[in-house]
Amino acid sequence: MINTFLQLLYPKCCFACDQVLIRSENWICTRCRFELPSPGLFLEQPNWISHKLDGLIEYDRVHAYFLFAQGGKVQHLLHQVKYKGQQELGKYLGACVGRSFSLADYDVIIPMPLHSSRLKERGYNQAACIAKGMASESGIPFSETHLWRTKQGVSLIGLNRAERYASLEEVFEIKRPEELDGKRILLVDDTLTTGATFLAAGAKIKAASTGELSFLALAALK
Question: Is the pLDDT of residue 5 over 50?
Fold first, then answer.
């Protein structure tokens, strides 16, 4: 009774479309669950997502759960996770990925790190929220302590992929590389645009480990 009354006063809304959720819905309404654009996690490779990363480092696979479009519902979801403090939404979306995508081929899930100053400012790492949701659903170990961002990024506006990659080459650092050697690693981020950040972080991982490296973005820009 109390919960019903509170729902009338403070209705829960869908984080994708802002429509009021019915009692059986959580986070995202049923309609948006079916309508949110997805490329499919099992695309044969190479494909348009892998083409963003090919040619600079060796990797195994790259996946994306949603398609990102300016002004679309996926952007709205990511904005809530990244800038509005909706950490639990990030974990929920990560759990959705974990339920939709077999992670059995991986030994460890690593989120894209934030620089310490950005982490202090925001209070959390949105990629870590997503990765935690994936790890809790799959049981695959999760680590925030092996990949570090040691430098704050410079503006990448107007740079092509290779130029962005070059500017990010010394931004990341691996701690305790011996613990990653031979591991099948899945590097996770919230969005994939040009792929330069994935590649720069991935290059450091590949230099430290003889295992396979794959990438997963919650959303990719086509």
Answer: no
pLDDT surpassing 60 at residue 70: yes
Q: Which residues contact 29 (CB under 8 A, 6 or more apart)?
A: 14, 16, 17, 19, 21, 22
| Least confident piece of the model among 35-44, 48-57, 145-154 | 35-44
- Residue 147 token pair: 């990949």
**pLDDT > 70 in the chain, percent:** 93
Task: Give the dihedral sign, CA 190/193/197/202.
Answer: positive
What distance in Å separates the CA atoms of residue 130 and residue 192, rounded to the nearest whole number? 14
pLDDT of residue 170: 87
Which two structure tokens, joined as six digits, stand for 212? 């396979």
Tokens 């130029």, residue?
163
Is the previous residue joined to 111 through a cis bond, with omega within 30 degrees of 0? Answer: no
* pLDDT for 1 beyond 80: no
pLDDT at residue 6, rounded to an integer: 43
Give the integer Cα–Cα distance in Å for 100 and 106: 15
